What we know:
Blueprint: H1 9-30, H2 34-37, E1 48-53, H3 58-73, E2 81-87, H4 93-107, H5 113-120, E3 123-127, H6 133-150, E4 156-160, H7 167-176, E5 189-193, H8 201-215, E6 221-223, H9 231-241, E7 255-263, H10 272-297, H11 306-319, E8 320-321, H12 327-330, E9 331-334, E10 336-337, E11 339-341, E12 344-346, E13 364-371, E14 381-386, E15 393-400, E16 420-426, E17 430-438, E18 446-454, H13 455-459, H14 466-476, H15 485-503, E19 513-514, H16 521-528
Parallel strand pairs: 1-2, 1-4, 2-3, 4-5, 5-6, 7-14, 10-19
Antiparallel strand pairs: 7-15, 8-13, 9-13, 11-12, 13-14, 15-16, 16-17, 17-18
This protein binds 6-O-phosphono-beta-D-glucopyranose (BG6).
Amino acid sequence: MPRVKIQNPARVAEYANDQQWYARRMTVQSHANPLREGLRLERTPEPCVIVIFGATGDLTRRKLVPALYSLAHQRQLSPAFALVGFARRDWSTEDFRREMRSGVDQFGRDVHAGVWESFAEGLEFNRGAFDDPEAYRQLGELLKKIDAERGTAGNRLYYLATSPESYADITRHLTDAGLINRNDHGPWTRMVVEKPFGHDLASAQRLNRLLLTHSLRERQVFRIDHYLGKETVQNILAVRFGNLIFEPIWNAQYVDHVQITVAESVGVEGRAGYYEEAGAIRDMVQNHMMQLVSLVAMEPPTAFEADAVRDEKVKVLRSIRLPDKDVGQWTARGQYAPGSIGGAAVPAYRQERGVDVVSATETYVAIKLSIENWRWAGTPFYLRSGKRLPKRITEIAITFKRVPHLLFDRSAVTGLEQNVLTLRIQPDEGISLRFGAKVPGPTVRLRSVNMDFLYGIAFGSEPADAYERLLLDAMLGDQTLFTRRDEVEQAWTLVNHITDGWKKLPPISGPNYAAGTWGPEEADDLIGRDQRQWRRL
Ligand code: BG6
């Protein structure tokens, strides 16, 4: 149990009660359902202050504070908890509390006035510019005061929710102001870094050096990829390594190919400045899709523990071999033209506010990957991701090889497809297995049918937001669901290889798929060259 010093006597009693309640709850939970509860139940977060840099931005209102509030509501935060918003805007603490309340009302779940009031008491605002040493001196004072009043014990979780240009200033000034403890003893300091983590390999390496050389150690850096916080993404490991039946066939001997789709119906959502530079490959492939590939393809880790899991993930990335030539043969790029989605007309990418009218940024990308190791040699992985596709859907589909010999005559099996195991990440979270069955009747005829598992039905509740899990883990100091330095750099090495290849090709000359369709013809050709096709979703 965390040791804290609290000066206010009313809070001492409250804290003691809460700790007893936590202890009871954890005992009960640890007998409940370990996989669902996250496998590491005995730990509750220690007292701490979270400082969000860039607290007036959208992420804080939309994701971070609703997630923290929800943790408070479920009594998963330490009772000695506080949140400081740090930003340039001329807000008072009252303004900050009001704005965050409206964010929780809009984006949170189960808003309860009593819980909100006690949560809001721990919210403070520290106004200042990221490059102003005085702002950090003030922050230091505020943190001391909070420690004394709320018993937060000197533990700090800094959350960089700013644009990456400010990361250097923030880390330098925090270090200079003595607000970072690199040591193993004493109160802890951790830092959560939002994406984009660099723009290419060189900038990601620079950023890693910046964080790690003077200020922090790797075990203090929490690089966020919100896909890892999704229940269904974590479930990939649970399904693979919590069951006997899948693993023996999870390899090139049985798997024909794997398709990973991350389709979005939204456009750039007012983020043209960022997206014009990033494109689909940096926005989705370098991070989210590479994480999905790693989890599906990795070997069993030696333990369900941060470094063991990340060692195996990084090995997958290192085993991916990209051809040196003909990048146009194994990748496809697209950009959306005007079209319609769900009956509503939508403009072309080039017509979006802030986008260059002759922009060559890709809003769609498809890639064929080979993983050259014992498990996967010969089984291609096809990846596709795009904006303004007909619907939002993320899934991993594992298509198995055909049987070696079919007993039934041709006419009996016209409706029979290859077996497919689909892990549906979102929406309609679940898993389905497609296999052949006999159609009822006097003749032997086979048709493919589905066996479905649906999260909502099996567990009776919708999965929690990814940020809840990730913020909780950061407070617990558990890095399993955060990306390590070598992982991020290896993913960038792959992406650099592709973007360097693209530089040798003519740039995208114009829109090549209508909004509301499944991407450009080039993507169909890419998979078609292997006599396969994209799944129809
Ligand atoms: C973000 C990208 O990382 O992920 C966005 O920057 C994208 O462009 C988003 O829309 C998708 O996340 P989710 O959770 O909606 O699949």
